[in-house]
Amino acid sequence: MGSFAGQSEITVSQGIRMMFYVLHPNETSFKTLEEVPDYVDKATIYFIIMLTLEMIVSWAWKGHTIRINDGLASLFAGVMSRLPDVAFRGTEIVSYIYVWKHYRIIELPWDSPWTWWLSYLGVDFAYYWFHRLAHEVNIFWAGHQAHHSSEDYNLTTALRQSVIQKYFSWIFYWPMAFFIPPSVFAVHIQFNLIYQFWIHTEFINKLGPLELILNTPSHHRVHHGRNPYCIDSNYGGTLIIWDRIFGTFVPEKEKVIYGLTHPINTFDPFHVQIQHCIHIWNTFWETPGFFNKMSVIFKGPGWGPGKPRLGLPEEIPQVTGEEKPYNPQLPLHLQLYAVMHFLLMIAVYIHMFEAKLILTPITLLVRTGYILLTLTSLGFILEKRPKAAFLETSRCLLFLLLQKYSYMTTDFPYLLLISEVIFSLCIAVWGLKALKDVITQSKKQE
């Protein structure tokens, strides 16, 4: 999702309706792209409120809350997916503007409700085909698989986005640029994304007649399932009609087991993002023959020599309903530690986006590097990796060093003072742990 220059305020009513795509053309039509609000940014507070409500309902209804490790891994992916937007406007918008400026055939009126509704349908139709090919073409799946890697299904899963997916999705929206103004497209590409947040939940059952037209939590649960009956189905963004038309609709039946057919068993943010790229690379070189190598890239993830394009359905691993998600046991205090440091990092992350026009390129680069280091280090802690103590000690030292040279300024000066105390204590604790690990390892080698 790219950034937009528009800073128009939206009312609470508009904010709530925005989450469900229930806004009128008159209140979301703009003449220029610069006037279009950054709706995704303005939706952040509503994401947080809905996440909090889901956690409360989960605790009150099921007696437990969202798994911290899996939930954080999803948030890690969400943060990583937006980091390129600090320096670059979204590929979807940039490419769309280029086609519009150079190749448009006609210019539909930006303030017409007909243009608004045509854009709504066009974005969702293009999304269906992009999403479908993201599952059916291996190189596209390499980007999209990150979103499906969670073995839980809740609102944090909606935020588990891919870093690389956005660099091929833009192709599917190009035809609209021949006649739909960029300002209209920019509204709907955001709303289509925002709508898909609330459908990532298990707490909303079927919605009656709406199930015939809209993509709903029930339909999307199937899409995220690894049960054989769930594979390659329900690709719609806001509408389910495309799946019904093109034969990819599957209703929810028995209990859905979530995640990839071959779970990756990691919370390492980089591994979550690129593990399938590595798999394709290795498979490409191991597969004999030029055309077979090309098939590794452009046919389905389940393809192999002698198999149909999308692989053999009987090779999809069966599920029993008793599968246990990857869940390394971590003491509660370390889980809370990971949450606290993630929130401290988010303060830096939010300020970076808000102030990116006045921050120097070197500051943006340094902060981006620190954020990536934080996500990696917290991932190591969640997995109890052997190098976690050393990496966390280094991260905390780096934070204090960057703060000393004014790379970590925020709108909350007291937060920096509190952070200085917290990080100093963390260096002492993790430093001792790292030293102990070194001594233990040395004794083992003797």
UniProtKB/TrEMBL annotation:
It catalyses: 1-O-(1,2-saturated-alkyl)-sn-glycerol + (6R)-L-erythro-5,6,7,8-tetrahydrobiopterin + O2 = a 1-(1-hydroxyalkyl)-sn-glycerol + (6R)-L-erythro-6,7-dihydrobiopterin + H2O. Belongs to the sterol desaturase family. TMEM195 subfamily. Its EC number is 1.14.16.5. Its cofactor is Fe cation. Residues 118-248 form the Fatty acid hydroxylase domain. InterPro entries: AGMP_C, Fatty_acid_hydroxylase, Sterol_desaturase/TMEM195. GO terms for biological process: lipid biosynthetic process; membrane lipid metabolic process. It comes from Hymenochirus boettgeri. Glyceryl-ether monooxygenase that cleaves the O-alkyl bond of ether lipids. Ether lipids are essential components of brain membranes. It is found in: Endoplasmic reticulum membrane. This is Alkylglycerol monooxygenase.
